[in-house]
Amino acid sequence: MKKPIVIAFLLSLFSIFPLSGQTDISIIQRMVENQSDYRHFFSLPYGNPAMKYGMYEYTLNEISAGGEYRHENQPLIIQTGDGYRYGLVNVKSFIRKKRSSMWGEASYRNGKQINLKWNETSDYLLLYPYVIGDTIGGNLKSEQYAFNGGYTAQTGKLILGADASYHATIGYRQVDPRPRNITGKLDFTFGIALANVKGYRPGISINASKYKQKNDIKFYNEQGNPTLYHFTGLGTDYYRFRGKEKETYYKGRIFGGSINLLPESGNGFTANISFNNFMFEKIISALNELPMAKVDEYTWKAEAGYKQKFLYRTWGVKAEFINKHRKGTENIFGDPVNDIYPQIASAQQYSNKHMGFLISGFFENTNPENIIWAIRPTIGLNDIDTRYIYPARKSESERLYSTLFLQAGKKTGKCFFRLMADICYDASLNANLQLPDDADSRMSTPLLNNYRFLAFDHTLMKLQLRSDYAINRRCALYLSAYWQRGWYTEQIHTDNVSVVLGVAF
User: Fold this and answer.
1) What is the pLDDT of residues 450-476, one digit of tens each?
2) For the chain, how many structural domains are there in total?
3) 190, 49 in Cβ contact below 8 A?
4) DSSP category for residue 46
5) Amino acid 24: pLDDT
6) Residue 188 in contact with residue 205, Cβ under 8 Å?
7) 321 Cβ contact list (under 8 Å, min separation 6)
8) If you average pLDDT over every residue of the chain, what do you get?
9) Alpha-carbon gap, residue 75 to 488, rounded angstroms
10) Running DSSP on this structure, what letter comes out for residue 232?
11) What is the rounded CA–CA span in Å between residue 99 and residue 115?
């Protein structure tokens, strides 16, 4: 897809979602209300599009453009590089009517990930550990396209909603090794809810996704090429296919659903639970579509709490739980016959379990005619257990997570200024890595690089400044900038910078 076509699509989004549903509420009030913790404190129920019927009280449309920059003086996850640079354009709209709501979003990002090693596959955090990589790596240029749209309407007590999205990425490098990765992910969700059942809105949803990635690596240097590794987890690779095959692809799907309960007025108890099953296969194209490995991942999420609004003052508390289990099964093949490798067995070799528990609360004042302020403390535990069966390897991590978010804002004339700060402390309670005595030190390089951060405490600080200027009651310009610094050891730190300029109406 060409850039002018993408930009034209972004701008045409507002012809699809016309400016109906506007209110007499000032643009500043609508922006503050739509961005408040009261609207976003519970995230899980809004995965059901039927629940978005009352997600926001007011219509709000935005067009924005900006840039993002990240630098790590040493890579935290070596397979994702030590930073990135992106320019972006984004258009989003939420239209609220009396008996329906509709929304849409489109975005375009262009830039590069910097200094990737041991990985030539896009979407590493989605496809780990079964990626292909080498010791050389380099910068990976990237173009990303994302489109989303949904609609929900009420008929009597029945509320129906549907949402669809598509995300595509092209990642490539113009020096050896030269990967060309083309990814696509299509998502669809359907939801249903009942209005005002004893003051509450119960609902259910189902979702399905399809994922694919084509991964092709080329070399033009005649002096020799680096070895390609088909990684299998915790410093291991599929030795039989090492250094040979440059063409792979991934195909996957997701099925899931959720059960939701929201208070009709927005005030009261909330309870939600969701389940997703993600499965994908890694296939080596050059070996007659050889199915090297398969991953099954099961994710349970639960969220429950209470929130209350008194005019402009709101508060809430909640508890969250996540249980995720990823299993990797590797296939075993006999000797090739006519270049076809017969599959003779399979074995589950890789396991990654993640369990987390979180408690958080918030209190805020959202009257833009006065000083607005907000506070949101959070504390939680995360336990991650990763194992490889043979040869036996194990990595364990237990961490205590805590964060404090603060916000203050003031309206002056037509301008509205907000200062936000996040302070996070992530403490290591326990970390353990067990490798065989004869483990290949070279192959263990990325594992040891990533593991060292599990044994150290982390500190993150984020400062964000946002300024909104009301051109009139219905239109405003805004500028948002943030800086984040992370401290991981005395020598290792990270910096994130983002600047976005936009218009809201």
Assistant:
1) 998 888 899 999 999 999 999 998 899
2) 1
3) yes
4) G
5) 65
6) no
7) 300, 301, 302, 303, 356, 357, 358
8) 91
9) 11
10) -
11) 51
Interacting residues of 336 by C-beta distance below 8 A, sequence separation 6+? none
**C-alpha span between 462 and 74 (Å, rounded):** 20
Angle ∠(304,305,310) on CA atoms, nearest 5? 150
Which of 110, 111, 131 lies closest to 120 in space, CA to CA?
A: 131
Residue 31, pLDDT score: 87
pLDDT exceeds 90 at position 57: no
Contact 202, 254 (CB under 8 A): no
Identify the three-state secondary structure at position 161. Answer: strand
For residue 467, give its domain range. 3-504
The overall pTM is greater than 0.85: yes
Q: List Cα–Cα distances, 425 to 201, 255, 462, 466, in angstroms.
A: 37, 35, 12, 24
User: Across 195-228, where does the E strand assignment appear?
Assistant: 200-218
In DSSP terms, 103 is beta-bridged to: 94, 150
CA distance 472 to 319: 41
Q: Average pLDDT for residues 234-244, to the nearest whole number?
A: 89
Q: Token pair 């205590």 is at which residue?
A: 400
pLDDT digits (tens, 9 = 90+) for 177-230: 999 999 999 999 999 999 999 999 999 999 999 999 999 999 888 777 889 999
Where does the pLDDT of residue 37 fall: very low under 50, low under 70, confident under 90, or very high at 90 and above?
Answer: confident
Is residue 380 within 8 Å of 359, Cβ to Cβ? yes
Distance CA 236, CA 230 (A): 9
Cβ pair 152, 50 in contact under 8 A: yes
Structure tokens at 281: 């296969």
DSSP-based helix, strand, coil % in the chain, nearest 5: 10, 65, 25
Buried b (16+ CB within 10 A) or exposed e, 249-274: bbebebebbbbbbbbeebeeebbbbb
* H or E element, residue 38: helix 37-40
Say if CB 504 and CB 480 are below 8 A apart. no
Residues 407-458 pLDDT 10s: 999 988 899 999 999 999 999 999 999 999 888 888 899 999 999 888 889 9
pLDDT at 6: 52
The pLDDT of residue 224 is: 74
Q: Which is nearest to 494 in space by CA: 137, 113, 75?
A: 75
**One-letter amino acid of 255:** F
- Full 3-state SS string of 388-452: ECCCCEEEEEEEEEEEEEEEEEEEECCEEEEEEEEEEEEEEEEEEEECCCCCCCCCCHHHHHHHH
Tokens representing residue 13 in the block: 């989004």
Cα–Cα dist 31/45, whole Å: 22
Taking CA atoms, 117 is separated from 177, 205, 209, in Å, by 11, 40, 29
Asked whether 72 and 80 are in contact (CB, 8 A), the reply is no
- DSSP conformation letters of 232-270: -SSS-B-GGGTTT--EEEEEEEEEEEEEEEEETTS-EEE
